[in-house]
Amino acid sequence: MDNIKSEIASLKDEVINLRRDFHMHPELGFKEVRTAQIVENYLKALGLDVKTGVAKTGVVGLLKGKEKGKTILLRADMDALPIEEMNDIPYKSINKGVMHACGHDGHTAMLLVAAKVLSHHRDEIKGNIKFVFQPSEEKDPGGAIKMIEEGVMDNPSVDKAYGLHLGNMIPVGIIGIKPGIFTAEADEFSLKITGKGGHGAYPHLSIDPVVISSHIVLALQTIASREIDPINPIVVTIGKIHSGDVFNVIPESAELLGTVRTLSKDVAKTIPEKIERISKNIAKAFRGNAELDYQFGYPPLINDPDETKFVKRIAERVVGKEKVIDVPTSMGGEDMAYFLEKVPGAFYWLGSQNKAKGLDKPHHSAYFNFDEDILPVGVEMHTRIALNALK
Question: Is 367 an active-site residue?
Fold first, then answer.
């Protein structure tokens, strides 16, 4: 295994070129047709058993070691976001309104090259490695649960699962991990506010859904501040409000779209009643009506304590002990959680921020980009985790 770092270093241009190709040709969730075809061809060229069309566009490659043993799963997500890219780079997205603004292009590239490296070491492997290229992480219901329902954890049965996410909030070369709850439950909801339309000059003859919506947006913040024990973190965010089309007309209705993030399933279960009660009663007070549609999303992602220690040891070997840090729980959501509900494993951040290069924009920004020098580090993490987990 001592030659692995140099072997991966020789593949740096390959992993960067793969990432840039995916970046130029982003595809939304469950539409990753081109991406999946490239993944399929790459894995087949390595001599892996490849299954396609898993959860519509997912791809699974199976590497069988020289000897029988356990099976581990390494996962990467492939989908992009509905964002118009604003970066001025040679590999800017050519698909209008679609952009890899979260690093999934890097995730796919790193796992592909890790598969190549590990295929060169199959004689050292006792057991199997499943390389899971998952569609649609960004939009619930995502690809993870669908892949599980279609048997990705079986034949052979998976014993452990691992994954990573590039992190532009962490300096390049730093690896962040923690045991227990790593990311939050991510739910979504919509509220339809109904009033009575009319002329903007005669508001007394109408029931204004915009005014009602404004009061509801503010009041929903009291769920966190007055209805939940302060030791339980919760976020209630309204991300979209749509109402009306003209400046001088009071519209008939308004739509609010939002997300709720919690770290406890028990707390999450109580939220729909609170949103509905607050919204309906405020709307009623203003002579309107509110209807709630609430969707429970990805569960909290929970890292197994022993597997977290294992990944930390690998990370310390790859980047040095001083560059492996404990990170706080993220209120972001991540459907890798479904894999880790089934088997022990761990998920971690791979720092990709480089302020000196201007690569420090947040995830889901139209200006998001990351330091590609980190890509070989991710390849090495995947590789060493796989080889050591199967020892």
Answer: no
Please confirm, yes or no, whether 372 is among the known catalytic residues. Answer: yes
C-beta separation of 350 from 177 below 8 A: no
Q: Give the span between the Cα atoms of 330 and 261, in whole angstroms.
A: 10
pTM of the model: 0.94
**Catalytic member of 32, 40, 372, 380:** 372
Q: What is the pLDDT along the chain (391 residues), one digit of tens a residue?
A: 569 999 999 999 999 999 999 999 999 999 999 999 999 999 999 999 999 999 999 999 999 999 999 999 999 999 999 999 999 999 999 999 999 999 999 999 999 999 999 999 999 999 999 999 999 999 989 999 999 999 999 999 999 999 999 999 999 999 999 999 999 999 999 999 999 999 999 999 999 999 999 999 999 999 999 999 999 999 999 999 999 999 999 999 999 999 999 999 999 999 999 999 999 999 999 999 999 999 999 999 999 999 999 999 999 999 999 999 999 999 999 999 999 999 999 999 999 999 999 999 999 999 999 999 999 999 999 999 999 999 9
Catalytic residue among 162, 298, 338, 348: 298
The whole-angstrom separation of Cα 198 and Cα 221 is 30
Question: CATH for 4-183+300-389?
Answer: 3.40.630.10
Q: Which fold has domain 185-298?
A: Alpha-Beta Plaits (3.30.70)
CB 250 within 8 A of CB 287: no
Token duo for residue 229: 């024990």
